[in-house]
Amino acid sequence: MMNTAAATFQAGSFEHRELLARFFLDTHVDYTPETIEWPRLEEHERARLAAMSFWQEAVSTENETSNKVAAAAALEPDPEIRRAIEMQGFEEHRHARLLLELTSTYAIPVQTPPRFTPKKLESDFLSAGYGECLDSFFAFGLFALAQESGYFTRALIQVFEPVVQEEARHILFFVNWVRYRRTLLPWWQRPLYRLKCAAIICRKILSRVQMARAMSGGDGDKSKPDSDTSFTLTAADQVAKPISLHRLLGVCLSENERRMNAYDARLVRPRLMPTLVRFAHRWMPKSL
Ligand SMILES: [Fe+2]
Ligand SMILES: [Fe+2]
Known about the structure:
Elements: H1 14-26, H2 43-51, H3 55-72, H4 79-105, H5 121-149, H6 154-184, H7 190-215, H8 231-239, H9 245-260, H10 272-283
Helix pairs in contact: 1-4, 1-6, 3-4, 3-5, 5-6, 5-7, 5-8, 5-9, 9-10
The structure holds fe (ii) ion (2 copies).
One fe (ii) ion binds next to helix 3 and helix 4.
């Protein structure tokens, strides 16, 4: 459903609300993790998959995100947007189910995480959403590189393709929901809302920087799953052949654009990561 029309409505308008809910509900893809026919892997392929260190962290992140998103549906007075948030909660929970199916099929040891109970509905939803904006941007590039490297079999890539595209839908929905919600606030509450979002984004970026430092031999405990760090960062050196940071960022930028191009052009696009990374990519040495 590619649409190249320019933005023609105001954020927060009835048209924006309608498009926001409709785009999300109409692009839902139906699949059931428990009925997937997982491809047979040779023992060396299975062992390579099992040796990747991020499975527990991935399961924990999806579990926590699904609980935060499902709870956030209660924030919405609008029935269509509430249905869209409930749908996202269902999809996040389906990601956790899919990962549990995969890990049990290929004998990868992970523990089923306890149910996470959100305490502050809006802050938790914003935290989950901005976390996904950061992580998905890198996940898009890593997924393309994993395809290219052949580290995952083609059949496994096909199973995960709808999951990765779902994350593109989620962050697109999220940034539009934030814009819509902010526009509905009285004018004097909007600066505070922007500040709240900025504080959450800074916290998310800081946690990813700390993780990156830990991975490059700095401080931090790499072995300990932490729901506020990023399993896409930990995956970088495990799914692709060694490549320059310049190439990695270039692939992330082009994959982000390709995945977002699938949706109505009137929707606001996630801007922070593409803008920061495009700037860094333009100025960094190609050999880095
Ligand atoms: Fe997810
Ligand atoms: Fe998601």
